[in-house]
Amino acid sequence: MKSIITSRKGIPFFHEKTAIEFQKDIYERYQEMVVRQSALHLADELWGKYPFQPVFDFTEKHYPKTAEINILEIGCSVGRWISTLAKRYPKATTWGIDYSYQMLKRANEFWVEGKEISIDWTNKGLPKQFIKGERLTNLKFGLAKAENLPFDDNSQDLVLNSFLIDRLENPRKGLEEMYRILKPTGKLIVVTPLNFNKVEHWKMYYPPIQLSNILKEIGFGIVDWKEDIIVNEPLDAHENIVSWKCLGFVVKK
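Above: the chain's sequence. Below: its structure in token form.
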């Protein structure tokens, strides 16, 4: 594993994120992004369910049977998915990697330090929530870019991400990095709305068959492919939503 460059509040940095990069990164905005992600992924009582459960439902049958494994989530946000797997595989080594320090700070406080957090989304008509955290001893969080992961070649049994690849500066390079660190027996699980920001990415990776061809060029073999995973993301107390039509795929090295 690559050396830690620096650390902040218990979060190791594997990428030297500059002041300009911090300023440009919308995911470093606490009230707008961290509180929102915390409400969506940690405060199920607000919604009566977990809004992103369709992601878990798609991936359930693809999890390994072995207990002592290495699991990595890239773009982990506030840590809901990777913490779920850390609890499921208590003998596993689990990492959550994200490019946002503020997201990682919240994830580490809640899932590793076990702190109680408050979620104030009253500006959306929702009641303020206080949620007690957990202390997971087999889970770590770190800051890195998906296109330059700090893990060794052939080191991970399971790599996963959701709502990530359409936000990368270079999606293909990110996928190549995921291929590099994956063990020959490992799996990569991805769920994405293919909501690209750049014209060139739409041309390169859409329709989904083009993404499928790129995965095969990199060396992946496709295990599962589903193009109609619907995730309804709640917006407020009035039950307004954004409905995401997601592609889910599982590939192996």
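The chain has one domain: 6-252.
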